[in-house]
Amino acid sequence: MAVVYATLIIKGKKTIEQVPGLIREQVREILLDMDLPELAE
Known about the structure:
This protein is mainly α. The chain has one domain (2-40). It is built from two helices and no strands. InterPro entries: CD1375-like (IPR047907).
């Protein structure tokens, strides 16, 4: 599910604030691993 949210953030459909708290850190790590720190803020 974290990958789905990361994809939605990359496509501009969601923001990191809209990600449920339980998986927000996982999504943040995925975005950082993809060299997209600006989307993880």
